[in-house]
């Protein structure tokens, strides 16, 4: 299905409309279009390679498009609050169980949710929408989203240009690397949370011991 979508729809559309085409597709992806953002960024780099275009312009256009899509979802969440979760389309794509899981992660990890959410294909729009409903600071949202985008967008466009006609092979390799990176980052977050818990427990224990010692002194 993805091969057909790439060769019959995405690639012809992007080649016909160049920078505007890639920009439009990336924007739709940010709004929930079920298409891997990585593939579109690699495709943008491939178009630079094929037509000897400007990689700098493609990177700027791509960054602007992905951030705009993210901001639209975040803004909708802030504008309509939790009422948006009851819209028929949103409710069908973002069931209550998934909402509860995302909100729980957000309440535990705060702004880190936005950073890691940028790499969660298929869930990103929902994560950003919920961040809006929870009234996250706009400045904080933009800062974390931009940081994550700067780490991925330029690199993927550049790789698409470097791989040239084999950019599809790059997509396969990136998918594998991304899986390991996300797994490693998740383990890191869990380890950090465990360390914070142990540290907090040790601090409470030390305080209780000190209080008990003070209580028995004459």
Major beta sheet, specifics? none
Residue share in helices?
Answer: over 70%
Q: Structurally, how many domains make up the residues?
A: 1
Unreliable residue runs: none
Structural class: mainly alpha
SS element count, helices: 9
The mean pLDDT is: 80
Per DSSP E runs of 2 or more residues, the count of β-strands stands at 0
Estimated radius of gyration: 22 Å
Quaternary structure: single chain
Estimate what percentage of residues fall within beta strands.
under 5%
Following the backbone from N to C, one meets helices and strands in this order, namely HHHHHHHHH
Q: Distance N terminus to C terminus?
A: 79 Å
What does this structure look like?
The chain is mainly alpha-helical and 218 residues long. It has one domain. The protein has helices at 2-30, 37-51, 55-80, 88-93, 96-109, 112-117, 124-133, 138-163, 167-216. α2 (37-51) crosses α9. It is globular.
